[in-house]
Amino acid sequence: MKKRHTPAAAAPSRKNSKRPGAPPGSLVYTGHRRQDEVTLQLVQYTGDAMQTVADTDAAALLGRLDASRVNWIALSGLHETGVIETIGSRFSIDPLVLEDILHAGHMPKLEEHATYLFLTLKMLTRNEDGAIEQEQISMLLGEWWLVTFQEKDSRVFDVIRDFLSSGTGRLRKRRADYLFYRLLDTVVDHYFVILDGMEDTLTRIEEAVLEQNGATISGEILAARKDMLALRRAVLPLHESMRLLAQRDLPLITEGTWGFFDDVRDHLAHLGQTIEHTREMITSLMELHMTLNANRMNAVMKTLTVFAAVFMPLTFLAGIYGMNFEVMPELGWRWGYPLALGSMAVIAVGMLIYMRRRKWL
Length: 361
Known about the structure:
This protein is α+β, with helices and mostly antiparallel strands. It has two domains: 39-291, CorA soluble domain-like (Beta Polymerase, domain 2); 299-357, Methane Monooxygenase Hydroxylase, Chain G, domain 1, CATH 1.20.58.340. Helices cover 50% and strands 14% of the residues. It has helices at residues 58-62, 81-90, 95-102, 158-166, 176-211, 217-241, 258-321, 336-357; strands at residues 39-45, 50-54, 70-76, 109-112, 117-126, 132-141, 145-150. The longest helix is centred in the C-terminal third of the chain and has 64 residues, at 258-321. Mean pLDDT is 82; it is low at 1-14.
């Protein structure tokens, strides 16, 4: 079982948006500022050695690049567009790609360029309140370098850093494309964590629906539906984008790494099928909940109808004998009042027996 890390919830901040009519390639961060300062970390490694350097100066950090090693630049915080522009200039990144990196609401996709691959996707985690948090993650893969862009220092890739530090496994012995695969696989693994939690929630909701207890079931079903849609929007476009890797003619992906990307595509296909099943299950739960509520309402209306039907003739008799006339049958008779009450009781019991035999009760 792979080690997983869940980031802490970040405080929301003001959200920017691209000005309508701005030229293509305009660098405007459209998400929330999730941390105060942009952090940069450079991890360089070979099969025998590894070093990590942190620096707030992007130009100084880029000056340390070494083409004889694998260079992983991890950037956290996208609100300072000048840092993004500096990195883009160093690796000759298309301004439209930089614009996509800063577009926090961009759908997942994979693009091939002359000297690099570009991947953007969604990282999903649950905060302390159980709500799903989305984080935009983008990756640029070159021959000997990899740059990751995150909206916050979520520590989601710490497990990869631990493997690099320990020197165990094949990670330090492979090229940057294998590191690219491991980071992608880590994000996909978190999708399974979200899906497992969603299935547990739906099982609990189903039990509550069948037991007909819980006044907030409708809200819980709608929240589960919202979580499912968030997962669906993250997985399905990514699965479609990964079809590009199935062509097996990308020079930046070595022959020994193809099988690992096939495994990621299989995981995404499995997630897609499970998501559709979960979607149908949520719809069924909502329909079942509405049906049970309708049945309970029908039972209440049936009970009220029975009472109304029974008391209708009694009200009729009481109304007649409540009229203020001096001359009325049995008005001065000693047994008139008991006779009226007895007649009402006989009529009520008789109607109940009749409804019982007709199976209306």
